[in-house]
Amino acid sequence: MPLYERILITGAAGRLGSELRKGLAPLAKTIRLAGRQQFTDLAPHEEAAVFDLADMEATIAATAGCDAIVHFGGAPNESPWQTILDSSIRGSYHIYEGARKHGARRVIYASSVHAIGYHEVEAHIGIDAPVRPDSLYGVSKNFVESLSRLYWDKFGIESVCLRIFSSFPEPADRRMLWSYLSFADCVRLVEASLTAPRVGHTISFGVSDNKVKTIDNSGANHLGFQPRDSSEPFRAKVEAAKPPVDPKAPSTKYLGGWFCDLSHPDDLK
Predict the structure, then answer these.
(1) Does the predicted TM-score (pTM) go above 0.85?
(2) Cα–Cα distances in Å, from 191 out to 4, 27, 124, 250?
(3) Which of 4, 137, 151, 254 is catalytic?
(4) Which of 65, 126, 127, 184 is 20 to 30 A off residue 225, Cα-Cα?
């Protein structure tokens, strides 16, 4: 018996949304896929909602009938301010208003390491460390984490904000030897966030069981997430292909990596 009647997945056509679309299927009778382009390969248990998160009316309408929302939509990277404002900040507010108006009981939000990207690697921070965004993208993650806190305290909507580090098919560089989150572990993390008996308002880091550990995620142990993968099988390949890093470079010093080297995105126009 599925735990949920209907789960809405925003960003369902993206890199991680595509994995969640498959991995979360056993948890709901219906998975509603949200994106800006039409889906042409719907399974029998799937339905589609095509809209832009910046459109408040359409976004709220897409949350109707959903008892859980997996919110992975929005700007996928550092972007000009207007893009961040419309898709990630306004869009997430629209999601939470939809949850409030239509009675969704839990939201799982794709936050990011970039919400705390200016903490030093050797600081070994926990989930309660002060926010230190490394970009406008990171600022938008901080906004939604605060928004979700408000909606828990005031309206009783549970949220888990997942500070995902580097989720790709395999580690692409030396940094990812400690920041790697496998696709399978990403699905396990979201599944744990959806199935834990109580989450209230929880922040959790999203990394696999890598040998090199840079953060303390014990404050989210109540989720029951058990990563099964590691970057170690890729270590030899990465170290052979990538030269040693400069320990003084911002991209090496801080958790946010190369985001800490970026200039203001609007300066690039």
Answers:
(1) yes
(2) 12, 8, 26, 34
(3) 137
(4) 65
